[in-house]
């Protein structure tokens, strides 16, 4: 096979790819929710590629230098091993992204995990016995004349890329654009692997993996931006609720003759509620928790006027020196009243509390309303919107616990900034 001796070009390519991968990795660590489907596999994929690039660059730096042959063997073996881990992480990410609780897909993934272990063992064995390639005393790569061993060395990556393409094609539950996107991602490292095998002396497999990761990251970022815009539109529509406006105006109208002063103040509260809704919906920035609670207070005054003794409110605010995405607490309180407390004839209580647990600011909205079975009923779309915006805007999280006939507890956790401990 033809040989191309370009060690410095390979080092430059590896270093350039490494800088890109480090930027992507840091961005994902800081911006993506680890609980998102496939996120951990994607992070492991990036970390594996980073290690492979460092090891490959070190191997090419020592290539051809007397006395550095051991370093060349070690770094090349490390690069080969973590490359296997990167490929299986890529397959795991595909399985998590395109398949949902599929036994067949998970079975295929487990089979390839076992093959990955054997492939890593083969790479490590080659460092000692040199059956696929070795490094001579001058620090030069010497490839085995046994073509069978060369094929065995490439067997796991080749089978994995073929399996990824097949799994992408047969993921019928996923959108066609997503399935073919994974095939495109696979073509980059596969092409690099083929070129490395055909032309000794170049190193493009890891560059191909980098391009694949960068393509995935770009698609994730674009998809996330589109989701945030869609959620913002959905939130805007949900907050302009004609039934709520009609009920509020009816309540104010009924109070005009019997309690005009109260009707006056309720009108002011309603106008502030609408103004805050419009103002926060046009903002993409975090707002002080106090500002969010002012909005919640306006909403609760309106609902209290409607439901009177059927609705009780308890506040337990132990900390408030932090920021939240706009409309974080109000939709959850509205959910507690609409789907919880008012579902019971006697009504109930909504408790809003905050506290500092050392690492997070915690907000809890608890009601003793109707409750629901969290396994049988899908979480309300308003809660999902809040959860997504929390993750995207401040790396926060939202959990829901509910029991039929007893009530619901919604917990929001917002991580504290480093250096801001009490």
Unreliable stretches = none
Helix content: 55-70%
Backbone CA Rg: 29 Å
Q: Order of SSEs, N→C?
A: HHHHEEHHHHHEHEEHEEHEE
Which descriptor suits the 3D outline? elongated
Helix count? 12
Q: What is the CA–CA distance across the termini?
A: 65 Å
Strand order of the largest sheet: 4-6-7-9-8
- What structural class is derived from the secondary structure elements? alpha+beta
Structure in a nutshell:
Helices cover 64% and strands 12% of the residues. It is of the alpha+beta class and 422 residues long.
Characterise this structure.
By secondary structure, the protein is an alpha+beta fold. It contains 12 helices and 9 strands. It has helices at residues 7-31, 39-62, 69-98, 103-129, 147-169, 176-198, 205-239, 242-258, 260-281, 289-307, 330-339, 381-394; strands at 133-135, 141-143, 287-288, 311-317, 323-324, 348-356, 360-367, 397-403, 407-415. The longest helix is centred in the middle third of the chain and has 35 residues, at 205-239. It starts with 6 loop residues before the first helix and ends in a 7-residue tail after the last strand. The relative contact order is 0.08.
């Amino acid at each position: 096979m033809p040989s191309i001796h370009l060690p410095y070009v390979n080092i430059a390519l590896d270093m350039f790819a490494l800088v890109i991968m480090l930027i992507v990795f840091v961005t994902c660590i800081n911006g993506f929710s680890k609980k998102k489907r496939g996120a951990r596999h994607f992070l492991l994929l990036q970390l594996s590629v980073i290690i492979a690039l460092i090891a490959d660059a070190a191997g090419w730096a020592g290539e051809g230098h007397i006395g550095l042959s051991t370093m060349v063997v070690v770094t090349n073996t490390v690069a080969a091993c973590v490359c296997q881990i990167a490929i299986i992480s890529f397959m795991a990410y595909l399985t998590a992204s395109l398949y949902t609780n599929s036994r067949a897909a998970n079975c295929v993934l487990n089979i390839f995990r076992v093959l990955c272990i054997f492939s890593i063992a083969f790479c490590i064995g080659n460092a000692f016995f040199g059956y696929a390639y070795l490094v001579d005393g001058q620090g030069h790569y010497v490839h085995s004349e046994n073509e069978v061993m060369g094929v065995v060395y490439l067997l796991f990556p080749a089978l994995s890329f073929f399996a990824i393409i097949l799994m992408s094609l047969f993921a019928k539950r996923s959108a066609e654009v997503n399935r073919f996107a994974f095939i495109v991602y696979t073509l980059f490292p596969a092409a690099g692997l083929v070129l490395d095998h055909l032309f000794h002396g170049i190193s493009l497999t890891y560059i191909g993996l980098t391009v694949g990761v960068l393509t995935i990251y770009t698609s994730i970022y674009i998809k996330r931006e589109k989701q945030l815009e869609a959620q913002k539109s959905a939130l805007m529509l949900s907050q302009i609720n004609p039934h709520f406006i009609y009920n509020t105006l009816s309540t104010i109208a009924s109070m005009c003759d019997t309690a005009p002063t109260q009707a006056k103040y309720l009108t002011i509260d309603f106008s502030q509620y609408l103004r805050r809704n419009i103002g926060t919906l046009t903002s993409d920035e975090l707002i002080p928790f106090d500002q969010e609670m002012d909005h919640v207070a306006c909403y609760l005054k309106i609902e209290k006027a409607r439901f009177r003794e059927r609705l009780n409110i308890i506040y337990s605010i132990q900390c408030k020196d932090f920021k939240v995405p706009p409309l974080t607490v109000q939709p959850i309180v509205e959910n507690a009243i609409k789907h919880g407390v008012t579902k019971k004839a006697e009504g109930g209580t909504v408790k809003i509390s905050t506290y500092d647990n050392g690492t997070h600011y915690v907000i809890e909205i608890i009601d003793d309303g109707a409750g629901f079975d969290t396994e049988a009923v899908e979480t309300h779309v308003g809660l999902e919107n809040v959860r997504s915006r929390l993750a995207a805007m401040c790396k926060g999280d939202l959990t829901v616990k509910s029991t039929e006939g007893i009530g619901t507890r919604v917990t929001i956790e917002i991580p504290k900034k480093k250096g801001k401990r009490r």
